[in-house]
Automatic annotation (TrEMBL):
Main location: membrane
GO cellular component terms given for this protein: plasma membrane
Subcellular location(s) per record: Cell membrane
Transmembrane intervals: 20-40, 60-83, 89-108
Membrane topology term: Multi-pass membrane protein
Record's protein name: MFS transporter
Keywords on record: Cell membrane, Membrane, Transmembrane, Transmembrane helix
Organism of provenance: Streptomyces albiflavescens
Signal peptide: none
Amino acid sequence: MLVFSAPQVIAAAAWRGWGVLLLPLGWGIAYFSGMVYNVAQLSYRQSVTPPELMGRMNAAVRWVVWGTLPIGGILGGALGTLIGVRPTLWLAFIGSWAAGWFVFCSPLRHMRDVPAPAPAAGGTG
């Protein structure tokens, strides 16, 4: 995620005149990188998730990822109005990098297998 969100800095660095061409270039590279990231992370999730948990895993990930998009849209629009588009693009870049570093520094990075569930207390009764 740290590598794939890096092209957002190109869009945020656009300036007046010919520099405005950096905006679509940066976003185009960022969206292409996002597609590559999504294919890789979905393939990884499907390879480590047991078949009986696949539906729950996909539902949880979609709820978290797609469920936050409206919040980001509202927040981005409000910030773009209040502080301007360029500072909002910089905040978006910083936020995506902060999220990437959060995952990079978490214990999830070292997990290779889904832990087996602990046996239920009290037997089957």
